[in-house]
Amino acid sequence: MSEWKEYKLGEVTTKIGSGATPTGGSNAYKLEGISLIRSQNVLDFKFSYDGLAFIDDEQADSLKNVIIEESDVLLNITGDSVARVCKVPKVVLPARVNQHVAIIRADKTKTNSDFILYYLQSIKEYLLMYSEIGGTRNALTKAMIENLTILLPPLPIQTAIAEILSSLDDKIDLLHQNNKTLEALAETIFRKWFVEDAEESWEVDTLDKLINTVNGLSYKSSELNSSKVAMVSLKSFDRTGGFRLDGFKEYIGKYKEQQIVIEGDLIVAHTDITQEAEVIGRPALVIGNTDYDTMVISMDMVKVVPKFDWVSIEFLYFLMRTKEFKGHCEGHANGSTVLHLSKLAIPTFEFQVPEKEKVVEFTTYTKELVKKIFVNHSQIKTLTQLRDTLLPKLMSGEISLNYDF
User: Fold this and answer.
1) Each residue of 24-56: pLDDT tens digit?
2) pTM (2 d.p.)
3) Which of 54, 352, 362, 373 could bridge across to 33 with cysteines, CB 3.0–4.6 Å?
4) Which of 117, 121, 112, 108 is nearest to 160 (CA)?
5) What is the architecture, at CATH level 2, of domain 5-152?
């Protein structure tokens, strides 16, 4: 630790700054062009492509003071997502940021950009408290970021620490990518077997002939308190599909046995925010292996239960992943600020019902793929816990690295 020295973040960076939203707001966004990174794209440890906006050359020129370079660190500086931090992927470039995201560019002669990223992650709780100073809305100003005290070891040690942590993140990312590949494979098979090659003899029927739905529980804010019961919330639905383990609320109220979910159960989002409208009607398979004794579903979703043994969760999940199901649900959603799915939306979805034998064959094949996805999720959790354990110890110098430089 004797080699570690304190600096102001502004002393070891060449740029700290945020951008703006083009005139016209979201109506000015393009279908393609130069990326405009917003707070929703900046998650802890990773970049999210969900809702990535694009602007044209003229709009980008007005933001030329916030051109993003490879290896820049992105920090959310306002709102509920304040203090989330990640690095910009090379494939997103060229890019700009709006006013809710700050660029932090490391001076490569003094510090390692990955080390900066992990250091900011390690002090997130402090940043959250820091952002509450002097205003009604959480915010980190440019001056606050520049004057942030950061403890740095010599550059070679910074690089070694960053490599340890980034290697864990790379493994986590690889497992996520593997899961996306497995899901895409199963989706391709489903579409080939049951949509493109659907037989004329298969009768068209509604989904309610095959399933029941269980409504989630309504709750009061006073019932949200520390407990071993996790309430699955709308945040548990990944915008690109799938289930998130960081979207829970802790619940102390009453619930029905039918509202309990375990790993492998199928849930469908019943509400969404109108500006996004990406989650409503989206299915997810519940991931288990949490630190909670029980998981229950909130009123923002329903649990889907097959009526017959031959109707598998795997078949229903990939049926609900189709664009036809998504479009049907969107057509049955209404609301001004919050979208609500009609109770009839899921039951009235029409499709060609295949022969039982075909569903069983599909289930036999995809069950192994889904099983592998859950195994990967378990490994992701283990690696994430290891990274989160090492992070503060490496960043504080509690764990020293014996390297000859």
Assistant:
1) 777 788 889 999 999 989 989 889 888 899 999
2) 0.86
3) 54
4) 112
5) Alpha-Beta Complex (3.90)
